[in-house]
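Hallway conversation turned thread

IA: we were arguing at lunch whether anyone had actually written out DUF5063 domain-containing protein end to end. Turns out nobody had. So, for the record, here is the sequence (182 residues) and right after it the structure tokens. Reply here if something looks off.
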Amino acid sequence: MSDANSPQDWNALAERVACHVDNYLNGLEAVARGDGGTHTVPLLLLEVSQVILAGAQLGASADVILPDNWEPEIGDDPDLDAVRTGLAERLGDLDEYVEVFDPYKDTEPTSYRLSDDLVDVASDLVHGLRHYNQDRPLEALWWWQYSYFNHWGNHAGASLRALHAFVANDRLAVAQEAAVAQ
């Protein structure tokens, strides 16, 4: 960016992030409905990877500072429990995984649920999207950036590792079976 604080640059970044957020939310809802079929986990891996790209863009940007240093009220965010439940049903036994959430502070692995993490990410993202859709791109960026560092970035990263591990183990097991069969 030429001037990281110019309104044009912020608006362009907000537009890019909003696109990633829309795609993530739509993809998550589709998978929760069962539209992913046997490709549920690889599709979730793709959705999380793409939204992490948006997070990386936010992380590489200058700090977004609101002029009045406050976030306007936008009301209650939508209830995402149906998405959480749908994901848990689709994931089954794969829903639970173990993670060291902060490798610099945690010393013990902790059990997590992909369905919870994926919806926690969605909840943070939809909050910012509501600002964006009300023509407040700076507030949207501020929320997305703040919550990326504070919350959804960790959940997205942990989810990515769990989803990647499953897909990699599944594909490598097939490759090993094929090699043994030859």
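OS: looked through it. The chain has a mean pLDDT of 89.
IA: good, adding that to the notes. The two ends are 53 Å apart (CA to CA).
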